[in-house]
What does this fold into?
Amino acid sequence: MAFNILIVDDSSIVRSVIIKTLTLAKIPFGEIYQAENGAVALEIIDKEWIDLVFADINMPVMGGIEMLEKIRENPESKSLPVIIVSTEGSTTRIEQLKAKGVSAYIRKPFTPEDLRDAVLTTMGEIGNE
Amino acid sequence: MNKQETISKVFCEIMENTVFMFGDEEDKADLAEATGETIKTEIGFNGPIKGSLTIIAPISACQEMAVNLLGVATEDELTSEQPIDAVKEVANIVIGNILTEIAGTEPVFDLTIPEVVASNKEEWDKMIDDDNVIGFDFDDEAILLDLKIID
It folds into this structure.
C-alpha cells in the first residue's frame, strides 16, 4: 500500500531531503504534499486524504506542536499519524510530544534507516507491504 | 573536553554526516580569506542557558552543502535560495546537538527560526578578530562559527 504523505517544514531543502530519504528508505508513497507551516498543513489535511504527516517543530505562523494539538482536537483527523522530525534532543520535550499524541520522533541528522524504522513503527505491518 | 572542543567536535560531525564535508578546526590566521560573497546565519536559543549560534560561510561552501544535501550533480541545478536554506538547516542541526552536549538531554530549549543576516567582508573580518569565534577548514573552504552564551 502506498501512503499519501504530508511533509511540513518551513525549509524547502528539508522537505526535498525527506522526499529523497523516503525513496532511499523504500517507503511506498503515493501523493506527496508539502506545507511550509502548520496552518497550511491543516488546510491540506482538511481537503486531501493524508495517511502520514512528517512535521518540524519550529516554524513560522504555526509550529508543529500547535498543529499537532489542532489535528488531535479535530474528530476527523485525531487518529492521523504524525512523526516529528527535529533537531531537538531533549528527552523531556520528546515525552511531552508523545503525551500530545506524536507517533514517532526522528532526530536530525537522520538516516534512511531511522526514517524507515519510524514509519514501520507508526504504520505497523502496512509499512511492510 | 572544554566548551570549544565540544563545539568543534559536534560541528565537524554534523558537517560530515549531514552535508558530507570533511574538515577540522583551524587557526583563523591560517584560513583562506573570504574573497567572494558570504552568507551569515544566526539562530537563538532560550532555556536553562540562553544565547545564539552564528555561522558565516562563503557562498561556494553553502552551495556545496546544498548540492550534497539534495544529492544533485552540480550547483547549476540549485535555486538561489537552496544554498541559504542549506546553511540555515546546518545551523539548526548544529545548535540542537551542541545544546544536548553542553546541557544534557533533560532541559528543554526553545529555538528561534534561523535567520540570514547581513554579511560582507567587514563582517567576516570582525568575526575573524573575535576571540570567541572558531575557524574551520572544510575541503579548503573557511567557515566561522560563534556560540554566544548570555546567561
In short: Residues 3-149 of chain B form a domain with the Chemotaxis protein chec fold (CATH 3.40.1550.10). DSSP finds four helices and seven strands in chain B. The longest strand of chain B covers residues 38-46. The mean pLDDT of chain B is 91.
